[in-house]
Amino acid sequence: MESTSTPERILRGIALTLVILFFMFPIFWIFMMSFQTNETILQIPPSLSFTPTLSNYMALITGKLTTAAGTLDIAFMGNLGNSVFLSTASVAVSLLLGVPAAYAFARHKFRGSEDIAFTLLSFRFAPPLLVLLPLTQYFQWLGLSDTYIGLIWVYQLICLPLILWIVRGYFEDISADVEYAYRIAGHSWFATFRKIALPLAGPGIAAAGLLAFIFAWNNFVFALVLASASKQPVTVGALAFVTSSGIQYGQIAAAIVLSIAPTLALALYAQRYLVEGLSLGAVKG
Amino acid sequence: MTTLQLQNITKRYKSQAVLDDLTLDVADGETLVLFGPSGAGKTVLLRLIAGVIEPDAGKIVIGGEDMTEVDAEHRGIGMAFQNFALFPHMNAFDNIASPLEANRSSAAGIREGVEKVAKLLKIDHVLSHRPKALSNGQKQRTALARALAGSPPVLLLDDPLRNVDAKLRFEMRLELPRLLAKQGATVIYVTQDYKEAMALGDRIAVMSQGRIRQIGTPEDIYNTPADIDIARLFGDPTINLLTVIPKKDASGVYVELSNVRVPLPSMPESVVGKECVLGLRPETIVFTEPSAQGAIPVTVEAETPLNEKTVTLLLTARGREILLSRPAGTPGPSSGPAAIAVNGAAAFLFDKESGARIATPATTTNRNGEAA
Q1: Distance separating alpha carbons of residues A82 and A76, to the nearest angstrom
Q2: In chain A, where the domains are located
Q3: What CATH number labels B233-363?
Q4: What is the CATH number of domain A76-284?
């Protein structure tokens, strides 16, 4: 380690504090909002002293939203379930397809392999809205609109390129000699893939899976257009809080807290892998 | 019985030929050393034999069977890599066990096999360690043990001593021949260290630029190098090379060094008047009395004792540097003017243009590919 002077350390501390404040404040504020009623939230100037209430969470969990205009049914818990199911299933499918593909791209330079890999990446260049119009049409023809399968399929546009490119970098980082050594020892290529390549790329695969999960979880526009209420994830479901009698900030805040909780927990848990995986993908991409 | 034949192997990367129409026979149980500078194609050749890369042309025959199209796992080969290529997520035991597992041996059989080879290589106490926790020497031995564990009939060792320290290299150089003999396998051993090549090889194949330049026993290569490069690669200190133009008089062919006549009794007359390079092994040059017949005056520049020998750097009257090597402890000047005698019969003459050694009638055999 290089030695750092005292002023340098103080400056660094200040800079870090500022960055943390900048990024953490919205989360903190939303967390506070989720325990307040609409009246206290909208009060000017905003105040940190309030009587915490669990009514927002109660409304979400029971599915009954009480507004000035009466009681509304909301499917928030159903949406949360949809989010978990859609994201998990999408990432699972992406891993199943993407990891072997990434291995193929990393290890076997066949004619057009770079072009195919790039085409897959280019799915992420297209603005989703541009893709959505024709996609809606196709899905109606195919009977895929408003189905989980259809949504999971579309989510591959988000997850597959991500997993493919990050995991590919990881596979390329494994010394080919290590794999050769296992082949020469008498094992088939598939055994080599399973026993050598997969375990060694494990952290990268985990990081890529986690990232893909977060991206899938945060997706809004695909589900908005292609799914009806019963299949919608939380990102779309949150629209229900914009009611005829006003915007239910308290419930929105509570809904946000509940919906970021799983990804936040996952990200915190796998933070190390995530950073490692991202930087590696960047270097080897 | 496992012989190994490579027939007209060619391998290109882009348009660059890494191996160029290479043919090589290795006899059953023989240890053949592939020797050559980096980029000569030695490692590529090993990989072709192992089956992890494919040749563009040519045939690989192992034990009489054409293996060119056979997958690596079915070739019955053990290979130790220069960078060890241990499986980082497995401990030493599992590393060594990998070829035995592929044979579908029983668990007890695997344990027995691993422990036997580990004991032989003195790593039985570190079998539970991951590669990260092993020293370089232990890694090297683990890699070697893994190559040996399956008792493969063909062993490919890619410069296994390259990345270990000098002391261990010296020990292993003594140990390896015994180990390889015990294994009874046909061995191809790649190295860039001529001493290793001389110590281990039944025969040495000298490679450069994708071709085999000379193949023969260590003595052949040392005593009758095919060209200047090979003469320079073998021998420590390096051979003295002096540009000369041979002359001829009534008593035969000779060259002049510092105006002193050095007869070359075995050289053909065709070399007369041609620009040549005279090769003098440092150990064939001796100090002599300045008044003696054929004595060449020199100045002693520096003296370096090297354990069993002493190397002296000399300067001729024309300022050319000459190395002289003599057994340690023998008398000789360590500074000032001196005189040397050169044995013309033990000298090599190389064509300056092509670099090829000019054959003397006594030593015309053992050129490219001919049996030793």
Answers
A1: 10
A2: 6-73, 76-284
A3: 2.40.50.140
A4: 1.10.3720.10
Task: Tell me if B85 and A186 make a contact (CB, 8 A cut-off).
Answer: no
B chain contacts of residue A180, beta-carbon cutoff 8 Å: 47, 50, 52, 72, 79, 81, 85
- On chain A, the residues whose CB falls within 8 A of the CB of B92 are none
- Output b/e per residue, B354-365; b: 16+ Cβ within 10 A: ebebbbbeeeee
Model confidence at B245: pLDDT above 70: yes
- As for the ipTM of the complex, it is 0.80
**Span B44-70, pLDDT tens digits:** 999 999 998 889 999 999 988 898 888
β strands within chain A, DSSP E: 64-67, 70-73, 242-243, 246-247
Interval A179-208: pLDDT, tens: 999 999 999 999 999 999 998 888 889 889
Q: pLDDT (tens digit, 9 = 90+) per residue, A73-102?
A: 777 888 888 899 999 999 999 999 999 999
pTM of the model: 0.77
Residue A189: list chain B partners with CB under 8 A. 71
CATH for B4-226, among 3.30.70.270, 3.40.50.1000, 3.40.50.620, 3.40.50.300?
Answer: 3.40.50.300
Residues in chain B closer than 8 A to A182 (CB atoms): 87, 98
Residue B370: predicted pLDDT: 41
What is the percent of chain B where pLDDT is above 90? 33
Question: Which of A108, A109, A184, A187 would best serve as a mutation to test chain B binding (most B beta carbons within 10 A)?
Answer: A184
Interface of A with B (CB under 8 A): 175, 177-178, 180-189, 196, 199-200
Percent of chain A's residues with pLDDT above 90: 28
